[in-house]
Every structure is written in structure tokens, then in C-alpha cells.
Design a protein that fits this description.
Strand order of the largest sheet: 2-1-4-5-6-7
CATH topology of the domain at 1-124 and 443-504: Rossmann fold
Strand content: 15-25%
Largest sheet: 6 strands, antiparallel
CATH class of the domain at 1-124 and 443-504: Alpha Beta
Structural class: alpha/beta
Distance between the termini: 24 Å
CATH architecture of the domain at 1-124 and 443-504: 3-Layer(aba) Sandwich
Number of helices: 19
Helix content: 55-70%
CATH superfamily of the domain at 1-124 and 443-504: P-loop containing nucleotide triphosphate hydrolases
Number of strands: 15
Radius of gyration: 43 Å
Length: 544
């Protein structure tokens, strides 16, 4: 259960600590006092998307904290815990990303949504609109009847996966043949060139050599002449060495000159050999340039470098092998798909039969509850029909209702007013077993009054047996059924507006109910009516 809610700098609420005891709690107050901010604070603890514009002007951030009890929290590492108390905290800055905390540790909004949603269920105008969707009506029928659809969902997921696998294997023969032709063309094109890793660097060097072969040979000849020709470097070196031989002051230099000679003769030999190997070859030059062009074309089509081109060819061969050996693979997948479809059909029939069997019971129970909610002439039918392509499962479920004698049955969106829709949603909530420990109803009584309002209050009180129910209401008939009443009041000094949340005692409840009934909290007559309303509500609750 939610023990306490703390709110700071959210909307008109500067700071409020709101105790929430078990049972039915009514949240009342003037329009615009800030009751919606309390519901919004609870929504933030359930992972709702934050709105920075809701941060109180002048504040850096809005902060919402919820203290829970009952061991439904989670350990810091996300594993299930069994602690007696745990805290959810949401910080919404006026600018920037919101932050979520679980027991003081930084968490994610998704984790908070899971934890908060496990404990709190919020019903408002959005929830009423959601009830109009067939999917939600189907879920309600499944929950009412305790129908487990896990096996059906798993079987359908398996069918979808196998259908996709069959398509990937070339389920369309024309598409398969086209892909085979394309793969063979790519493989042949790459194989005809037969690239090797690093080949382009070698070809670039060879092209540079061949493109300037004559100039390369001429440069080598000039160097050979300068080094080894008559009067060249070698002759000069020999003359210098001979001049210094036997001269003690130059002994070291003479030794160094003698050492240079052999190295220089090695350079001359290698230079002569390299120059003789360079032969102008226009045919080879054209061949090198042509191959480089073909390699560039391969890279343009199949990869940023030759390694990627070679890998593309290998992948294409693997895919081609897969496609050309599909007969046995396809047979295996088709067999698995047939088995999966058979299982899905069987599960669909099981679920559909259960839905059709439970539909009259749900309709009958809703009629009983709607009669208690001041709709005594209501007729309800739960329509269960199959969806195209999914025979037997009864995937399309729709609540058909008529609230007036002689009126034809129709969908909720067509025949139910806002007040009637609120009561249908409340009736469904009463029918469904289980659910979170805390339920919040934001003006579920909109569009109702008089006897219907009292019926809604009684139903909420019944729902609150064994759990917490918080209702935001403007109706004294609803508030009178509450075990506890909180007054949300707005105060202003002309420059600043503050909202407070106060727990009302018995006397204060009479005053607040008087205000709600007549707008005159000091009226003795209104107070008499308020006391009578509280007494009659207590009597109704005592009779159950």
C-alpha cells in the first residue's frame, strides 16, 4: 500500500505531505485548487511522461516521493525484494531530463513505471477512452474468466517467425530465382578479376615504374657515369686515398676513405642491375592500368577496399549455396510452420471457446452491477467474433450495451454517455479480480449526480475493501462514502498562490460536504444535510 505521498513544487503545490490510510479516500476541494496535481504526482511515480511546465514558477525542480509498504518493492539491483517499506522518487527539473530513484538509488523511468504500475492503477478520462478499444474489452473478458493466453501468443509468435524464415529462404520462387541470378553475376564478376589483398599498392608502384621507364633509365645512367665514369667519384676517391696513404696525421681519414670505396662499388652494381631491369613496356603498362580500373569498379560496387570485395564474394557464395540447397531446408521449415499453425489454431480454439463460454457470465454480472450503479434498465451483451485469418480464437470482443428500455444494443462509444461510461468502467473494475493495491479514480463521477452519484460512492467503497482507493470528486454523495477525506485548498495573498492538502476530521468533513452541496459551509441547513448524508452512507456500507 501507499503509506504517504510527498509533493514539492509541482503546479500550485509548494509542499505537501499526504498520508494515505487503507480504504476509500476522497480528495475534494474547489475547482483549480490542485487536486489534479495530486493525481499527476501519482502518475509520475508510475512512470508517466513529465511536463517541465508543471514545475512551480521560481523552483528548480518538482519532486514527488511515495513511501510504500507491503514488500512489493525491488532491491537496488532490480531483483525482487521482500522489504517492508520502499520509496519511489521522481525529480522533474524545469529544464533537462527527469530523474527516477528507487530507495535512493538512481533508476530508469521504465523501472519506475514497472514498480509503480505494479502498486498503483490510475483511472481517469484517458482510461475511459481506452475502455472503448476492443483490445481492452477483450483483456477484461480474459481477466474475468481467468483465461491464460500465453500459449496462444507464443504459438502465434512462432508462426510469424517461421513465416519470416521461409520468406528469408526464398519463399517467393520468382524472387528466389532473381536473387540467385544476381548472386551468380556478382560472384562471376569478382572471380573474373580475382583480386588479392594488397594488390592495388603493388600495381600502383608498377604503373609508376612503367609510365616513366625511359626517364628512370636516363637518371640511372647519369648517376652511373657520375659515380663510376672516367674522372668520376670512384676515381677521385682512389686518388684521394692514395695521396693520404703513409701520412700519419691523416691516418684516420685514410682508413675512412678506404672503407667508403667498397660500399660505393656495391651501390654502383645495384644501380646498374636495377637500371638494366627497367624496360619500357607499353603493353604491360596498359595491362596494369586496365586491371587497376577493374579493381576500382569492384570497390565501387562491393566494398571500400579489396578485403571487403573478397568478403562480399564469400558471403555471396554462402548465400547462393543456401538458396540452391533450399529444397530440403524449405521442406523442414514448411513442416515446422505447419506444426506451429496447427498448434496456434488449437490454442486459438481453446481460448475462443473459453471466451464464448465466459461472455454471458460477464454480461450478467455487469448488468447486476450497473443496476446497483443506478442503471437498472441496462442490458449487456459481450460479443465474441473471430478475426479474419484467425478462426476460432474470438480475438474481437466488444461490449454491447443499452441503458434505456427498448433501446437497441450498441457499442460503448455509440450509446454510452460520459456518466454511463464511467459507471461501466467502475463495474468492470468491480468484476475483475486482483489488481494493484492502490487504485486512483480521477473524477470518475463526471456526468452523474443524485442517486447515480450515491451508487458510484457505494461501489467505490465496496472496491476499497481490502485495498486503497483514492477518488477525486466534486460530488458530496461520493465523498460521503469515503473512510477518509482530504481537502485540497488554494490560498493566495495577492502575489503568491499556495495549495495545501489537509486531512479532515469528522467536524471538518461536515463543513466540506456542506460547501460541496450548497457552496455555503456555514449554513446550518446544509450541515444538517451533510450529517444526514454521512449517516446514510455509513448505513449503506454497514448493510453490506
Amino acid at each position: 500500500m501507499l503509506v504517504e505521498l510527498a509533493v514539492r513544487d509541482l503546479g500550485v503545490i509548494a509542499e505537501a505531505r499526504i498520508p494515505l490510510p487503507p480504504g476509500l479516500t476522497a480528495l475534494t476541494g474547489e475547482t483549480g485548487a490542485g487536486k489534479t496535481m495530486v493525481v499527476e504526482a501519482l502518475g509520475l511515480l508510475c512512470g508517466a511522461r513529465p511536463d517541465p511546465s508543471r514545475v512551480r514558477p521560481g523552483a528548480d525542480a518538482a519532486v514527488v516521493e511515495g513511501l510504500f509498504a507491503g514488500g512489493d518493492g525491488s532491491d537496488g539491483d532490480g531483483s525482487e525484494g521482500d522489504r517492508s517499506e520502499w520509496v519511489l522518487r521522481r525529480v522533474v527539473p524545469s529544464s533537462g531530463r527527469s530523474r527516477a530513484y528507487v530507495d535512493g538509488g538512481l533508476s530508469t523511468a521504465a523501472d519506475m513505471a514497472e514498480l509503480g504500475g505494479r502498486s498503483i492503477e490510475i483511472h481517469g478520462q484517458h482510461a475511459q477512452q481506452a475502455l472503448l478499444a476492443p483490445r481492452h474489452q477483450r483483456d477484461a473478458l480474459d481477466r474475468f474468466a481467468g483465461i491464460d493466453t500465453t500459449a496462444l501468443r507464443d504459438a502465434r509468435a512462432m508462426v510469424a517467425n517461421l513465416e519470416q524464415r521461409l520468406a528469408d529462404l526464398g519463399g517467393d520462387e520468382r524472387a528466389r530465382a532473381h536473387e540467385i541470378d544476381l548472386l551468380r553475376h556478382q560472384i562471376d564478376e569478382i572471380a573474373s578479376v580475382d583480386p588479392t589483398p594488397g594488390e592495388e599498392d603493388d600495381l600502383a608502384a608498377e604503373e609508376d615504374l612503367l609510365a616513366d621507364a625511359v626517364a628512370h633509365r636516363e637518371a640511372a645512367a647519369a648517376a652511373l657515369e657520375a659515380l663510376g665514369g672516367d674522372g668520376g667519384v670512384l676515381d677521385g676517391l682512389a686518388m684521394a686515398s692514395e695521396s693520404l696513404r703513409g701520412r700519419a696525421p691523416f691516418a684516420a681519414e685514410a682508413v675512412r676513405l678506404d672503407a667508403i670505396g667498397p660500399e660505393l662499388r656495391d651501390v654502383l652494381a645495384e644501380l646498374r642491375s636495377r637500371a638494366e631491369s627497367i624496360e619500357p613496356d607499353d603493353a604491360r603498362l596498359d595491362e596494369v592500368r586496365g586491371r587497376r580500373h577493374r579493381l576500382v569498379e569492384l570497390r565501387r560496387k562491393y566494398g571500400d577496399d579489396l578485403d571487403e570485395v573478397i568478403e562480399h564474394a564469400a558471403a555471396a557464395r554462402r548465400r547462393l549455396d543456401e538458396l540452391t540447397s533450399l529444397d530440403s531446408t524449405r521442406e523442414s521449415v514448411e513442416y515446422e510452420l505447419a506444426e506451429a499453425r496447427s498448434l496456434a489454431d488449437a490454442e486459438g480454439r481453446r481460448v475462443g471457446d473459453a471466451r464464448r463460454a465466459a461472455a454471458p457470465a460477464l454480461a450478467e454480472r455487469l448488468v447486476e452491477l450497473l443496476a446497483d450503479l443506478a442503471l437498472p434498465a441496462s442490458r449487456v451483451e459481450v460479443s465474441v467474433t473471430d478475426r479474419d485469418g484467425r478462426p476460432g480464437a474470438g480475438d474481437d470482443v466488444e461490449l454491447l450495451i443499452a441503458t434505456n428500455p427498448g433501446a437497441p444494443l450498441g457499442g460503448l462509444a455509440r450509446v454510452a454517455s460520459g456518466g454511463e461510461l464511467s459507471r461501466v468502467m467502475l463495474a468492470l473494475r468491480l468484476v475483475l479480480s486482483g489488481g494493484p493495491d492502490v487504485m486512483v479514480f480521477d473524477e470518475i463521477d463526471a456526468g452523474v449526480g443524485g442517486e447515480a452519484a450515491a451508487a458510484v460512492g457505494a461501489a467505490l467503497a465496496r472496491l476499497a475493501e481490502g485495498r486503497q482507493v483514492v477518488v477525486v470528486t466534486h460530488l458530496p454523495q461520493v465523498a460521503a462514502f469515503a473512510d477518509h477525506q482530504l481537502l485540497v485548498a488554494k490560498h493566495t495573498d495577492g502575489t503568491t498562490t499556495l495549495t495545501t492538502v489537509e486531512t479532515l476530521d469528522d467536524d471538518d468533513r461536515v463543513i466540506e460536504l456542506s460547501r460541496m452541496m450548497t457552496g455555503r459551509p456555514d449554513s446550518a441547513t446544509a450541515r444538517d444535510h451533510a450529517e444526514e448524508l454521512l449517516a446514510s452512507s455509513a448505513e449503506v456500507r454497514g448493510r453490506r
